[in-house]
Design a protein that fits this description.
3 helices
Length: 81
């Protein structure tokens, strides 16, 4: 960015420090996305991981696999039969 526009550079005007958070290794979202396990098989599903307090990306939005399963499924789906 040119010095003439430095006053618009938010990193110069107000430095931001973001804390890193350790990944929860119990989250099985990667396996859910690959179809290896169903959301119900994740130990966090419906307990520590709910739509209002998502642990993994699958529960974050309404398009997420776990979020849809939580809202509409709750284990009522049977896959592969």
């Amino acid at each position: 960015m040119k010095e003439a526009y430095a006053r618009f550079d938010i990193e110069r005007v107000m430095p931001l420090h973001v804390e890193t958070v350790a990944k929860n290794t119990a989250c099985r979202c990667g396996e859910v996305l690959r179809g290896i396990v169903t959301p119900h098989e994740c130990p966090l599903f419906g307990k520590a991981c709910i739509p209002t307090h998502a642990v993994g990306p699958c529960m974050v939005s309404v398009e997420g696999v776990c979020a849809a399963w939580f809202k509409y499924g709750q284990g009522r789906f049977v896959y592969g039969k």
